Amino acid sequence: MNKILCITVITLSSVYLTTANINITSPPVTNWGVWGPFQKCGFGYVQGFQLKTEPYGGIFSDDTGLNAIKLFCGNPDSFGTPFITSTEGDWGSWGNVYSCYPGYLNGFQLRVEEYQGSSDDTATNNVRFFCTNLAGSNYIEGDGLGFGSWSQIQHCYSDQVICGLQTQMETYQGDDDDTAINNVLMECCDYTP
Q1: Which of 157, 132, 124, 109 lies closest to 48, judged by CA?
Q2: Is the pLDDT of residue 16 over 50?
Q3: SS3 assignment, position 8
Q4: Phi, psi at residue 192, to the nearest 5°?
Q5: What string of DSSP letters covers 78-108?
Q6: Local confidence band at 70 (pLDDT 50, 70, 90 cut-offs)
Q7: Does the keyword Glycoprotein apply (predicted)?
Q8: Whole-angstrom Cα distance, residue 46 to residue 115?
Q9: Most buried one in 114, 147, 168, 179, CB count within 10 A?
């Protein structure tokens, strides 16, 4: 009896999986203003940040809260480290520089005050950033204001870090209520340590 021998050849090749860059966006608690220009690190990834905030001016003042976010594309303590921003509001001053170095920013959370009706609106007041070198749910909190509540945490994928920024900014409203930053979009780029 003739036997037929069948040989199956399986070729295994290396499979490389990559994820596309994703955008993570703050939940829209407030929605005033227009989106500013998108900025992306030309080289490196975000390792630190700085906030521009208008201090509380009192009960009869038109306060704005957070007016800009600066992200450092490398070690923020090194001279000449490039940085990115989006639209910068007219009010307030730059606060402290915060660093995740040698880690990278990989998530954020905004502190946002909801619509106040006939009272003063401030919208976004502060930001927390999550870092690759901080365990669990630990974060670095900026030196913004304390109005409002912390929104939902936004995280990059586990193999990604923050590399870009865009902010929604309400500019000067004349006699109407001013708020400055309302929402934030950050781009997450692939990162392999």
Answers
A1: 132
A2: no
A3: coil
A4: -120, 115
A5: STT--EE-----SSSEEEEEEE-TTS-EEEE
A6: very high
A7: no
A8: 31
A9: 179
Token pair of 136 as six digits: 């669990």
Q: Measured between alpha carbons, how far is 109 from 130 in angstroms, rounded to an integer?
A: 8
177 backbone dihedrals φ, ψ, rounded to 5°: -75, 130
Widest Cα–Cα separation across the chain: 102
CA distance 30 to 52: 19
What DSSP character marks residue 174?
T
The DSSP call for residue 134 is S
Pick the CATH number of 22-190 from 3.60.21.10, 2.60.40.10, 1.10.3720.10, 2.100.10.20: 2.100.10.20
Residues 190 and 24: beta-carbon distance below 8 Å? no
The full set of domain ranges for the chain reads 22-190
Cα separation, 171 vs 144, whole angstroms: 19
- Lowest average pLDDT, out of 60-69, 87-96, 161-170, goes to 60-69
CB 122 within 8 A of CB 177: no
DSSP 47: -
Please identify which residue in the block is written with the tokens 């290396």: 14
Closest by Cα among 166, 149, 55, 163 to 110? 149
Distance from C-alpha of 133 to C-alpha of 60, rounded to nearest angstrom: 43
Q: Among 190, 101, 107, which residue's Cα sits nearest to residue 151?
A: 107
DSSP classification of residue 4: -
